[in-house]
Protein 1
Amino acid sequence: MPSIQWEEKYSVNIEVLDEHHKRIFAILAKLFDELGKQRSKEVLRATLLDLKQYAVDHFAAEEIFMKQYGYPGYAKHKKEHETFREKVEAFQLDFEAGRTTVSVDLINFMTAWLDHHILQIDKAYAPFLNDKGIC
């Protein structure tokens, strides 16, 4: 199973957003760990909900900064967040209905998405917001 952990390469040079990213990585690591231990559905559900809620809160914080400072890529970035939320929501509905379990497919999706989103999409707003004095 793939693993992903916080490294300095993920820094967007905005302390509060870096702390958010670190927390998302920690929750994802917990999800990996729970899967490896064959935990109960309730434990996996709680961990998945924690990850989902934290991502929503983090997205809101990023979007506030981008909107407040007039980031020109705001609409595209917000769409990335919406697509992620929709995908995770669909997975959660399937999980709750018993149509799927927390699986390697979900972990692969989340790992790839985080890696791509932070290193390419988030890194694009970093210089813009840093120039506005956000660090």
Protein 2
Amino acid sequence: MCLGIPGLVVESLAAAGGLDYALVEFAGLRRRVCVSCTPDVRPGEYVIVHAGIAISRLDVEEAERVLEHLRAMGETDDWDRSLPEPAESVHEIP
């Protein structure tokens, strides 16, 4: 089954190959994610990521609800102990 997973945008990254990217955190694990489908997303916001692409923005309450559903389905494999809290150091790279 393919799932979209909520993650916290930590910082904007430089565009590459005509696509926009951001560093997104999933319960402590950080990955480079394409954010071209969500061009107005900013550090400190949550996105749903599917196959390395942020497909939508969502608020923290919705992110928690999605994770609860994934936990109930047994689809988290313990990587989701909690959503990462937005850090004071979250910033955008020029």
Protein 3
Amino acid sequence: MNAVEFRDLVNTVADAWNEADTVSAADCFADDAIYMEPPDRHFFQGRVQLLALFSMLHPGNNMQWHHIWFDEQSQVGAGEFTFAHDQVHGVAIIEVEEQKIKLWREYQWHGHMSWQRFIAHENKTFQCTIDNSPFLLLHETVIPGH
């Protein structure tokens, strides 16, 4: 698979999810594919389980890709996404084999926020910075000017 084919594949999944087309979405996955969120949030394996998972979708769930990458040599790609009206933002790591998704591993953040606000760094109070990092304070790291 090349990068264009990968982009088409993951866009087909998104389109199928947005239309609640369970079968078309599942057709993008290998028969024994794994769909998971580490370390232990969710795990589905095989066509029957994926069909059950995807059957919970409703038209207009609004899966949207923001950025998609693919490494042709390893046949592994990734994408940043928003799902379900800005309620989930995340990254999916996707391994393909024989033109199908073999492994879908995703990491998500839940909460109502636009994509632009989610990725912005301005006007936010971060939990960990150079000024308050417990790790840096614990190790008495010396940073010039701090």
